[in-house]
Design the sequence.
């Protein structure tokens, strides 16, 4: 069975690291080629994950990223279709809810190539979110919906997706956490030192880890400013208003650009 797996964002790399290991252990029953759309194109958000997690190098790299949702999805759709026409896989595997996910599902379904959606059935119930739009459409295009929880299965059934298209699989992110736990523990001291946090006897000083990447937060200057001011207050006064609490804020290139501008 020939499978092409579409990835483009860092969380998809982590999920693929777990599932690609299982595919590789199938002893030839399943052959996988990875297609990287380039949605996350920064080295720290792409190349580093492939190297550290032992993910097979992409057979196809589209180099598409940095544009708007519509522009990226359209360009990805066209480029993925070209690969699928050439390769004619037996199935296309997609993860989660990114523009890469939607573009892959659309391209495959129009070519009558079965789509398999990992993390199907997750819902925020906010149709204004691009991610919600992507995951809902992909679920309805998919031949197989791999749902992580009973709640996800219930969402799919409620939307009219046939029971035979739904498989309750469990959470692939939990699998990744188990697989890479020892590696993470081994690198812990090095990572904490690099972040300016002292690791002592297996524990660390208290700190806050924050991320900001949703468009609702990054694209609204007032909201983004309020979040940053709140983090600044936390760093100065802590939760109790007495002890400063170091804040570490890993930034996506897009979020960094919004802050700088």
Sequence:
């Amino acid at each position: 069975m020939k499978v092409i797996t579409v990835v483009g964002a860092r969380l998809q790399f982590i999920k693929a690291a777990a599932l690609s290991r299982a595919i590789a252990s199938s002893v030839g029953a399943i052959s996988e080629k990875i297609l990287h759309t380039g949605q996350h194109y920064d080295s720290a958000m792409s190349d580093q994950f492939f190297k550290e997690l032992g993910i097979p190098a992409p057979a196809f790299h589209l180099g598409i990223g940095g544009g708007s949702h519509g522009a990226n999805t359209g360009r990805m759709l066209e480029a993925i279709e070209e690969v699928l026409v050439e390769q004619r896989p037996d199935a296309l595997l997609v993860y989660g809810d990114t523009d890469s996910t939607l573009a892959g599902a659309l391209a495959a379904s129009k070519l009558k190539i079965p789509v398999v959606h990992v993390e199907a059935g997750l819902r925020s119930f906010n149709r204004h979110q691009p991610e919600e739009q992507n995951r809902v459409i992909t679920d309805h295009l998919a031949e197989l919906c791999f749902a992580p929880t009973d709640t996800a299965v219930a969402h799919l059934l409620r939307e009219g997706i046939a029971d035979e298209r739904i498989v309750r699989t469990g959470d692939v992110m939990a699998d990744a956490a188990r697989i890479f736990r020892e590696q993470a523990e081994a690198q812990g001291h090095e990572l904490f030192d690099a972040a300016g946090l002292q690791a002592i006897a297996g524990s660390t000083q208290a700190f806050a880890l924050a991320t900001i990447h949703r468009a609702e937060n990054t694209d609204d200057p007032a909201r983004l400013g309020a979040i940053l001011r709140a983090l600044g207050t936390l760093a100065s006064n802590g939760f109790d208003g007495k002890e400063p609490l170091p804040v570490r804020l890993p930034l996506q290139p897009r979020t960094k650009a919004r802050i700088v501008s």
Summary: The chain has a mean pLDDT of 88. The chain is about 50% helix and 15% strand. The chain has two domains: 2-179, 186-260.
